Predict the structure.
Amino acid sequence: MNLHPNPGTEVLRLGDPLSLPVAHQSIAAALRHAEARGLRVSVAVVDAGGHLLAFSRLPQAPLHTIDIAQDKAMTAVSFSMPTGALGELMSCAPEHVRTCLLLRPRMVPMGGAFPLLVDGRLVGAIGVSGASEEQDTECAAAGCHAIT
């Protein structure tokens, strides 16, 4: 890992896998963003293979947000695109395509997750659940920007 100019933080660079300290940094940034706005969310980071690398939630985040945050991250890494953008694409797809995709386990095509990219290389994704779609997206963006 290449150390960031700010002590105690790391940044991703080309060729590095997504490390646990970097995943925790991303989650911490997303949670700080949520807490500052009085939101109660769950945040998940998955690696490039879609495997859960790190997870945390704020007290009083609804129970279902645990799985939804993980599923959003899985969806973002699977398609290598933000889940909000995937939802927009699906809205233009034929009904049978939308139905088939929505029946897939762990598919959550709504805002709140971003792929984590380093120089165009997919290294993982972050997913947030517990607030409005727009607020989940803002929290996930904060987590994404903290490490990329």
